Amino acid sequence: MNDFDFTDFSLETERLLLVPLSMKYKHNVFREFNSSITQYMYPKPPEKIEETEEYIGISEKGIKSGDDIRLVIIKKDNNEFLGLARLHDVKSRTPVIGLWVKKSAHGNAYGKEVITAMYHWAKENLEFDYLIYNVDKDNIPSIKIPESLGGVVASQKVSKGLAGNTLNILNYHIK
Known about the structure:
Elements: E1 11-12, E2 16-20, H1 26-32, H2 35-38, H3 49-65, E3 68-75, E4 80-88, E5 96-101, H4 110-125, E6 131-136, H5 140-148, E7 152-160, E8 166-174
Antiparallel strand pairs: 1-2, 2-3, 3-4, 4-5, 6-8, 7-8
Helix pairs in contact: 1-3, 4-5
């Protein structure tokens, strides 16, 4: 298995640039990671900027150690912050891939573009059995992402998010 330090990592797509998460983006993350975004997610939105700073600090450690790729999604034509993407447990046989895109950017297929780019990078650079993509069964636009890459539902579970929301999680495997 390759060892990576993702501090200088980046991916580029036709419309997007993906760069490592850092404190530079803390205000964007704090503002955009809100209850409309976390409706179908386990985390809850931060109440204070310090919670976002703590998350980014932990993220930076994972980025430096090569355990996680946590990326800021930026629109190339105007440098607009769009959200975050993550590939974690990259040294395992079953890394987990996911993302969120801010509400005002929904409906532009940015999520599919990001996950597709990350999937192709992983295929070329990592040794894995499959990627895991977890999504709530009611989040139809996000369900289309793993399915576009040939992902299949391997399991389902019901759980509670940190904000008390009920989640009906489909666990996709993408080979």
